Amino acid sequence: MTVRTPKLFVRSYGCQMNVYDAERMADALAPDGYASTDRAEDADLIVLNTCHIREKAAEKVYSELGRIRKMGEELGRKPLVAVAGCVAQAEGAEIMKRAPVVDLVVGPQSYQRLPELVRQARAGEKPVDTEFAVEEKFSSLATPVRPLATRGVTAFVTVQEGCDKFCSFCVVPYTRGAEASRSVAQIVAETERLAAQGVREVTLLGQNVDAYHGEGPDGRDWTLARLLLRLAEIEGLARLRYTTSHPRDFGDDLIAAHRDCDKLMPYLHLPVQSGSDRILKAMNRRHTAADYLRLIERIRHARPDLALSGDFIVGFPGERTEDFEATMRIVDEAEYASAFTFKYSPRPGTPAAERDGQVSEAAKAERLQRLQARITERQIAFQRSLVGARFDVLVERAGRHPGQMAGRSPYLSPVQIEGSTAAVGEVVSVEVTGSGPNSLFAAPAGGAREDVRMLAEATA
Ligand code: 5AD
Ligand code: SF4
């Protein structure tokens, strides 16, 4: 008798933490024989790893469930269907009422219990597990058990989860719960394992990552900066990044790390959300536009070539034209290299959803378009400013055409290197020969990695 290997298909939506969690779910199910597939049609278990941050993201889940139901009918075989992630956390058993195709619902804090939940679902029960047990999740999900060889040279490592900031528009404090940090020892062990498998770049993840305060080997709480400096000692690891930060939690030692730690890349995602103090207050951000700009100035003083990215929400309740104009202004004042823009989406259970002064869809659309156009302009100008610069690229894969290798700049922009003989995983010095809106084109260059800092200082 041959036993068929059960196949797992995970589709992740939303943030990078879901990408990380998807790997951990696959790890949790590997001892039960589950192998990953990238074809939903072949799967015995389909997991939708959902996002609840904006309405559109949540609605996608229900349309996908509709497609899965149809696919099952066409195949004449029903795979088990699990809904995980933040929609699972927020809606729980409601999901099964609305979409009976769903066999199990599991929140982000319960993935270590997936094997048991899958067994229950197989037995015809319809388990729903949305309990908050972050500590348990961290301790039992710490060890990736699947071979890492196929995971590439970059990886995510979750260092903290949840958020205590309670921005008035945001569901994260409700879906991911209170802020909790993993211990330094756990993170070091996981990162060492990744480095030993050939991972060269690690991005530390957390919803509010600069609030990190995990227990260090000395029994004290360590800051994110201290953690980064410790991880920079790991052999084989060439690059460190972290995301996403809140301006209020950005410590002086983190600024210093941007100056002192070569492995920490000069790229920072630091959302401001709005340029208007009145709206920032209503958003409960607890800082002003000027506070934000001052902070950016200090970070740039430490690391002059820093590329800044951010998030913006347009059409927050009560946002008037002059508030929006302040947002347009801060895009220039902060000199973003790139940014993400969103229309405000009222999320059930958040304070802002109940407020008067909801902005019309038409005004939101118009503001979004204007803001996006300005950010695209800035992004193109930033990319262009790098032409002629030299910097290191971490080679991640072969390029689209023969003789091309593809990787990323220190600033996270994709780079196509022409005529490169470099291997995947190598860090090579390049000279930028051309720029598009999203990627850079480059040729191999010898030596000098300091050029780009000088260039940034010269153009500052
Ligand atoms: N509506 C629109 N955008 C939102 N974000 C978070 N909540 C909402 C919402 N209710 C955006 C913020 C945040 C990013 C991850 O998503 O800009 O930084
Ligand atoms: Fe949401 Fe970020 Fe605000 Fe936390 S800091 S509530 S995750 S927007």
Automatic annotation (TrEMBL):
It is found in: Cytoplasm. Coiled coil: none annotated. The keyword Chloroplast does not apply. InterPro entries: Elp3/MiaA/NifB-like_rSAM, Methylthiotransferase, Methylthiotransferase_CS, Methylthiotransferase_N, Methylthiotransferase_N_sf, MiaB_methiolase, rSAM, rSAM_horseshoe. One of its GO terms (molecular function) is tRNA-2-methylthio-N(6)-dimethylallyladenosine(37) synthase activity. It holds the Pfam family TRAM. Its main location: cytoplasm. [4Fe-4S] cluster 1 binds at C15, C51, C86. Its EC number is 2.8.4.3. Residues 384-446 form the TRAM domain. Residues 149-381 form the Radical SAM core domain. Binds 2 [4Fe-4S] clusters. One cluster is coordinated with 3 cysteines and an exchangeable S-adenosyl-L-methionine. It is an enzyme of class 2 (transferase). Its cofactor is [4Fe-4S] cluster. Residues 6-123 form the MTTase N-terminal domain. Signal peptide: none annotated. It comes from the Bacteria. It catalyses: N(6)-dimethylallyladenosine(37) in tRNA + (sulfur carrier)-SH + AH2 + 2 S-adenosyl-L-methionine = 2-methylsulfanyl-N(6)-dimethylallyladenosine(37) in tRNA + (sulfur carrier)-H + 5'-deoxyadenosine + L-methionine + A + S-adenosyl-L-homocysteine + 2 H(+). [4Fe-4S] cluster 2 binds at C163, C167, C170. Belongs to the methylthiotransferase family. MiaB subfamily. Catalyzes the methylthiolation of N6-(dimethylallyl)adenosine (i(6)A), leading to the formation of 2-methylthio-N6-(dimethylallyl)adenosine (ms(2)i(6)A) at position 37 in tRNAs that read codons beginning with uridine. Monomer. NCBIfam families: miaB-methiolase, MiaB/RimO family radical SAM methylthiotransferase. This is tRNA-2-methylthio-N(6)-dimethylallyladenosine synthase. It comes from Chelatococcus sambhunathii. The lineage of its organism: Bacteria, Pseudomonadati, Pseudomonadota, Alphaproteobacteria, Hyphomicrobiales.
